[in-house]
Records
---
Amino acid sequence: MSKRISLTQYLVEQQRRHGRITAELRLLIEVVARACKRIAISVNKGALGEVLGSASSENVQGEVQKKLDIISNEVLIEANEWGGHLAAMASEEMDTIHVVPNRYPQGEYLLLFDPLDGSSNIDVNVSIGTIFSVLRKVNNQRGVSEEDFLQPGKQQAAAGYCVYGPQTTLVLTLGEGVMVFTLDREQGSFVLTQEDLRIPEDTREFAINMSNQRHWAAPVTRYIDECLAGKEGPRGKDFNMRWVASMVADVHRIMTRGGVFLYPWDKREPDKPGKLRLMYEANPMAFLIEQAGGAASNGSQRIMDITPAKLHERVSVILGSKNEVQRAVSYHLEAPSD
Ligand code: AHG
Ligand code: MN
Ligand code: MN
């Protein structure tokens, strides 16, 4: 069997041999991976670790927080505060940004995360995950504010997710392809298990919450209706459907065997662009998907081209196999605007 490369070795090589990443970014990724290992331990303990169930609090989006949402957020903050690689962090679970305290050196990077994605699946023992996005602090004046975070996703220096499923898997991009690392529990380290992951351009599998069907806009209804019509319909082929309700798990399946994922705008709350959050859910996933040869759009615009107006901005999401995303987007572009 050929020798396996650890995440540490991979990152050192990226920094030393290829000069692709700075020492600070290398440390940042290592620290995030270490935090994910700690979160994985809590997830695995489940009821034994008394980590299941809800906390008695709500986050800034008005969602009831689960104990693991809060634990994972704290693990990521604590792990990343002291290394000198970050200026500030932002999270789904915090109203405002968390600036690195004065007692530690400030670095040039900004880290955003969804500490625990798929919260509704925690208590039922279904795959969940952590999503993260790395930006550079563009202005190099002293101090850091929320404004520094409001950059389009195309400016991400790195992004990734860790899925806590049957295996704990870290999927990472530094802007030159997508690498997959599997946690070796005996060794306690992430090991490179797939290089340059590519998503098939075509697919017969879609992921959408069908219970919202009656609220969708016409282009989404058209796209899904055509998939459902199968061999006899305009697509001339049968489609399968999957919906895990953990974006991490749905995206990981698409990364592995292709597919298209939609969480579109709908009529229930017309003023809200969508459910998913742009900066720590859609952007990192869009970066990974594009780096693997797929596409990610909000129906009219590439997700990574959107300049956010606020930290917790939401967005409509269509991502995955390129040809399928392009088709769904073309239906949006053809639809009469009202
Ligand atoms: P989170 O648990 O971080 O709030 O994210 C949940 C998101 C996403 O992971 C998933 O795709 C979607 O919500 C599921 O939404 P529905 O319950 O509406 O299907
Ligand atoms: Mn999420
Ligand atoms: Mn979350």
---
Amino acid sequence: MIRTRPATVLRSSRGLFAASSTISHRNYSTLPLSIPVTLPNGTTYDQPTGLFINNEFVYPKQRKTFEVISPATEEEIAHVYEAREEDVDSAVQAAKKAFEGGWSDADPIVKTRALTKIADLIEEHAETLAHIESLDNGKSLQNARGDVALSANVFRSSAGWADKIGGKVIETGNTHFSYTRREPLGVCGQIIPWNFPLLMFTWKVAPALVTNNTVVLKTSETTPLSALYICKLIQENNLLPPGVINVINGFGKITGNAITEHPTIKKVAFTGSTATGKAIMAKCAATLKKVTLELGGKSPNIIFDDANLETALQSAVAGIYYNSGEVCCAGSRLYVQEGIYDEFVAKFADYAQNKVKVGNPFEEDTLQGAQNSLNQLDKILHYIKLGQDEGATLLAGGERLPQKGFFIKPTIFGDVKEDMKIVKEEIFGPVITVSKFKTVDEVVRLANDSEYGLAAGIQSEDVNKCVDVARRLKAGTIWVNTYNDFHHMVPFGGFGASGMGREMGEDVLNNYLQTKAVRTAITQK
Ligand code: NAI
Ligand code: MG
């Protein structure tokens, strides 16, 4: 058993996973603001259930809750409270007050200390956080541990930027003194998805705070738990003034929409589907909010004849089965050069079928855990059927595991045509297509033939070819002889329909700053 829930909480229907309009909201005014949850490793911790506003966990005005489940068991973990428009407004007012009340001018040392301490706490609570993440999202514990480690690094690295953000003196001659300042935007709305709940929280919150902004962040409706846990750590250790960070649970069309419409919010940072990203950007036009978007992808991973086959195999596997394939930059289109095609594809299919362990996320050697929701499972199974209907050949997988939980076997499609939907559209699961190519020019053309441009992989031992192809591929990240290989100082973000703006590294700071130019006329003496 993985949960503890108060006797007053009834089990809700699976309707949560259908369109949000079918969710049955219920009033559970007796649900405490914190409940004990027992993790699969036997540890019991206190899980906050409320909205985190002004450094306190509070009830929403309407006191509605929604169910949070474990995708690996389909069992309930907890209920959490749902924010509606009026609660979004409370969070925004708290963030505005914190911004105007001092955070907009917070001293660099204050920010360094706070963000460093958050990094320390993430490391101290790493095992609990990894277990919460795995339980809530379905991902394997080994993947969740990686997310936690990168999250700590992002906070620690962001702390280091605090005293390095500044403008320039601009030489304009003796008549004037001209300089620029880099100033915060104000209250930032942040909307994150369910595939990396803790990591996306970190990628959004750390750079916003170090640039003196305040935050209202909405977690995904299927994965609210780890962000609330971090808020508890922030609260217990008194790390930030009230209102600097506010975290609310809720659904896209209600809570998310209230963020995009709120006139006080100056910027929206979003990670999620391209369709929702477009809708958010259109909404933000009404109040002229700045927008950064990290959206979908259909990234090519290219394996040349001269690749080290073992390295290339590991890159292909990490490219598609890491995080159960629920990765915006997944290497979901594999291009293999003709000289090694048969040998490589046979090896890859064998590996997918026999060496990628799928199932209980908490077993140490499980690579691929559960898909995040019934919706996502259905979407992936729909694409697998579509691939077969389109005439592609299943080389591995292609079905759900015959057990409880949303598990899909690692799947490979061969004999694909470039205009098939399974080659064109984002599936967001452990499903990859394999195509054969002859020349460099041909594969560059095929790789770039996508509306997306989030990432691409190149597997080759020829450094000249790697540098040349890396220049020619249209994508925000190029991985050479590796894949899905993130670093907290390396910027990440998309070309084209994959979005705008960059996260991590120095680039992300630009998303949260605006330049003020000061030009002073000098009286000549
Ligand atoms: P989504 O993009 O609709 O949801 C992501 C976040 O946006 C969630 O927090 C959601 O509550 C919020 N949201 C939804 N509609 C909104 C609206 N109108 N206004 C403001 N916020 C809104 O993605 P969803 O439905 O969870 O997944 C659908 C597909 O999106 C997946 O199958 C996958 O292909 C893609 N996706 C891509 C992600 C990425 O990292 N690029 C992450 C999650 C999903
Ligand atoms: Mg969940």
---
Amino acid sequence: MKTRITEQLGIRYPILQGGMQWVGKAELASAVSNAGGLGILTALTQATPDDLAAEIERTRRMTDAPFGVNLTILPTINPPPYGDYLDAIIKSGVKVVETAGNVPADYMDLMKERGIIIVHKCTSVRHALSAQRRGVDIVSIDGFECAGHPGEDDIPGLVLIPLAVRALDIPVIASGGIADGSGMAAALALGAEGVNMGTRFLATREAPVHENVKQALVDATERDTRLMFRTMRNTSRVLRNAISDKVVETERRPGGCAFEDIRHLVAGARGRAALESGFIEDGVVSAGLVVGLIDDVPSCAELIERMVLECRAHLERASRLAAA
Ligand code: NAD
């Protein structure tokens, strides 16, 4: 499968595993890259920039294929030293960086000088256009279906993807709502040149999380996510559980609530503990609407090969319809 994305990133299939906090570690990123997609480490999953440099080296020992690093710049409880993480990424020689949230403007020139391909993930056409103006190479457009932060416009992929393709000159990756070959075929038909998946890769054998988390994704239906932080304009789509129910209820009480009132419930450290222990009612687990489409826990290679076969079959079926 050849698109501008596969050419630019040097990968066999136009499938990326997007940055996932606490999940984007060497085991998963290398498995995706070895299977022909692009695996992505999540920088802030590592406690320090030095730990990130070590994780990049560990990934290199697990794959010869290209992989990337995600750096997300969004509200956090303890703002990390973003510049030091970026320095570690640039020094490591990694050739693909996925940015999300704010574009790290001060580092754009340096990354470009070093030949780094910048994939910027964003949730609106206006942010995509501004990222293009700032010099990013690829936009990953994240529809309302996505896990984590979908922005505040609530535009699903069926509308957002073609709008982004129409507006941008650089290639577009469709993100959010894709978990199988039919979604991939749809995204390509809408003009995207690749797909990005997070939640689907969370339910794979190599994802470094407890088996209970993967089973919870298999069990969940498309109605089992909740939108937290709506009242704070930092919306986040997560799995429905006791914690997300409590957060939404607290936000909806008369007079609303301040972040401090829910901070103990939503802290990333608590979410990480839930992912590791398998006590999934104890912390926030990011998940997209595609939980409704997930009904098994394959290896990354099985998943990617299956998706590509399904995608080709769907595209062939559609082109037969067009020919009739
Ligand atoms: P954290 O422990 O700092 O915060 C937990 C959650 O609370 C995050 O969703 C964060 O955005 C939100 N938050 C923090 N301070 C806030 C405030 N003052 N007002 C409103 N919301 C606030 O975060 P973490 O789990 O350690 O994650 C580190 C970074 O990765 C954060 O920037 C987080 O947003 C980001 N992240 C992104 C995605 C995604 O969809 N791209 C998914 C998970 C985490």
